[in-house]
Please model this.
Amino acid sequence: MRHLLSTGDLTRDEAVLILDTAAELAQVGDRSVKKLPTLRGRTVVNLFYEDSTRTRTSFEIAAKRLSADVVNFSAKGSSVSKGESLKDTALTLQAMGADGVVIRHGASGAAHRLAGWVDGSVLNAGDGTHEHPTQALLDAYTVRTRLGRLEGLRVAIVGDILHSRVARSNVLLLTTLGAHVTLVAPPTLLPVSVHTWPCEVSYDLDAVLPKTDVVMMLRVQAERMHASFFPSVREYSRGYGMDGARLDRMPRDAIVMHPGPMVRGMEISAEVADSPRCTVVEQVANGVSLRMAVLYLLLGGS
Ligand code: CP
Model:
């Protein structure tokens, strides 16, 4: 494995290896093992053309825990504002010795293009509405840690599927790992190609919840839609928001997930977001171990 561009590229064995490696690295960073020397002398560039809190920070912490040198590059304040292209930016960073490039970009396919231009490994940290593979991997890791398995679990992914890179990466990964996925959304927030995805589709959240082990709530991505298409908060939360009453309709051990950032009161109530059955903070913590695992497996070879 040289790049991580899509969860659809991972075999079951490769995905399980990443999750198992993350489990082994989970102790790194605590008092007894602050750092590992694995990536000493390697340089990781965080190349972010879109805003991020969790992904960029956790990739930086992960790389530093493996002793890599980290360069954080933000399009804002760089020569991108003077018109420099992605290709020229990438070649410039490569000339400075980047061994791995973590890229977030607003264009679907940007990570694939980058992989064709640079010699080092490319890690897709979210490309447009296409994929966000490390988010799906940390979600799978969180489910496996909480519920002990992925095989045979029933997972509902709820909300703005149309604009979600997290949904596609999760559908591809979870089905590879043996889970059954149902997408739940209003028809206006589903892509026309959804019938080709390896999952079921429902418009009725209340019908799906009683037979669901894991529900993943998604944010409605206002920044990717025209203002006139943005649903009213009240209407949306009535049909597709997760609140205490809906949580009560799920099996007792079922969990609620969210990749963040959350919009409390729209797709998730504060009561559910702060409930012990909601894994959102665990997901963030697991993101560091998971991204360490990916950097270790991609860049750790001689
Ligand atoms: N989940 C996620 O990608 O969050 P950020 O946009 O903060 O990185």
